[in-house]
Amino acid sequence: MIAYSILDRDWSFLTDKLILVGILFAVALGIAAYSTLAERKIAAFMQDRIGPDRAGFFGILQPIADGVKSILKEEIIPGRAHKFLFILAPCIFMTVALMTYAIIPWGKDLIINGRKFSLQLADLNVGILYSFAIVSLGVYGIMIGGWASNNKFSLLGAVRASTQMISYELAMGLSLIPIVMMSSSLSLRDITEAQSYWHGMHWNIMLQPLSFIIFFTCALAECNRTPFDLAETESELIGGYHTEYSSMKLALFLFGEYVNIFVSAAVISILFLGGYNFPYMNEMGLSPNWVSILSMGALFAKIFFIIFVFMWIRWTIPRFRYDQLMKLGWQIFIPLCIVNILITGLLITLKIYH
Amino acid sequence: MREYIFYFLALVSVISALMVVFSRNPIHSVLYLVVCFFSIAGHYLLLNAQFLAVVHVIIYAGAIMVLFLFVIMLLNLNKESEPHKPIIIKFASVISASLLVLVLIAAMVNINPAADSHPTLHTIGMVRELGDTLFKEYLLPFEISSVLFLTAMVGVVLISKKES
Questions:
Q1: pLDDT in tens, B45-88
Q2: A139 — contact with chain B (CB < 8 Å)?
Q3: Number of A–B residue contacts, CB under 8 Å
Q4: What CATH architecture does domain B1-78 belong to?
Q5: Closest residue to A143, CB basis, from B54, B57, B69
């Protein structure tokens, strides 16, 4: 695994990875920042408004203005809050949100000066399971934050958010098993490569549409997005688990949500939309480096489309009721997933899928 | 380098395990237990057991400890509401813990750690090897234990239904 392989390799390997970490960090935060602007612009478009357009042309500087505002605002820690955990919670939330980036294959390998430069931080043997471990840790930031605030609305919001996340994790994991069965690997790179047949169009969404729908819905629930944003129903719980937070700590929570959306969009594109594969990628006669740059562009196009769909859903569909949410997760999705696994197993045994 | 990582992880796991017992606030105990589980997952990684490490994090740190946190937060346990235990229970717990230590020492006294390191078997902890072993060599025990889990689940549902 990572700890093992880094110890055994040379320094150029380490510097490659460190450069990639830096780039990914900047790109991830940049995209998350501009997702906030995109969200407001899309909301404005759907509600026939203009949206933010004062800071720079077309509101292009709005995320920077928001960031500066968050940093300069007064920081309030409630008197009877648990101070250390109160500060720790947003840090955990943000760190965990950024951790999944390590296993996402962003494109085919680049070859610079005869040296291979992988566009993936770590090709883990247990890639998907790693992403699940990270998702299940995301609950801690929310729970600790809600509890440390010493406010019953925060605690209720935190309990709601984490129950929802735990419940939907099950259906999410089960909906992935058919994909793992078909590509017979847990590594995200192998899963991407398994979708490269049919001139780069052998996407899992065509073979497993039900899995895609379930996984997509569960991703919405994991990110606490509408129609599953029961954690912050302002009419019942004021603001949810981050009621007591202010200034940059609140910004970290809100921002972490957009980082989560970006990660989920990336995972969805890799698992179901062919990852970095695009049609006729090997038949166009381009040099390998161009193909790898184009493949990166293809992955990002897919990610942006998924992010757009997330926002589209948010401004279209009203919120579920809490019992409906639980019923959907436990009584509808889990049985459907199990049936889907059985059908896929049958098709693989009959050699219809392989 | 690997040795230093091992000593660091060992230190973290021992200290956090002790803090689980000694910290007064139950929430702190749970959080130290989470840290302890993480350091144990690190030990698994050093032994090249990737699958075990990740599953350990998913199940223990991700699911079970979150449920612990849930219960403790909702019960709002703290020092004032802690029940006062009679002295006989304290004695009983000390004796039983000592017996457990005795059993552990007896079990570990004959272990020769050097004999267990197979440098050729570096893929032993990978998912593929594990799946092969589980579903070929140990298929029957595996299936029987899954039936056991199912029974436990049904039992839990039954118990919770009866109370309402």
A1: 888 788 888 889 888 888 888 888 888 877 766 656 666 778 88
A2: yes
A3: 74
A4: Up-down Bundle (1.20)
A5: B69
Is A354 within a domain?
A: no
**pLDDT surpasses 50 at A2:** no
pLDDT digits (tens, 9 = 90+) for A277-316: 887 777 777 787 888 888 888 889 999 999 999 988 888 8
What's the total number of domains in chain A?
A: 1
Residue A242 inside a domain? The answer is yes
Task: Taking residues A62-80, report their average pLDDT.
Answer: 85
C-alpha distances in angstroms, A293 versus A111, A151, A262, A266, A288?
11, 49, 20, 17, 9
Q: Which residues span the domain enclosing A121?
A: 2-349
Say whether residue A140 is in contact with chain B using an 8 A CB cutoff.
yes
User: Against a cut of 0.90, is the pTM above it?
Assistant: no
The residue ranges of every structural domain in chain B are 1-78, 122-164
pLDDT tens digit sequence for B1-28: 778 888 999 999 999 999 998 888 888 8
Whether residue A327 lies inside any domain: the answer is yes
Nearest to A139 among B2, B50, B66 (CB): B66
Q: Is residue A187 part of a domain?
A: yes
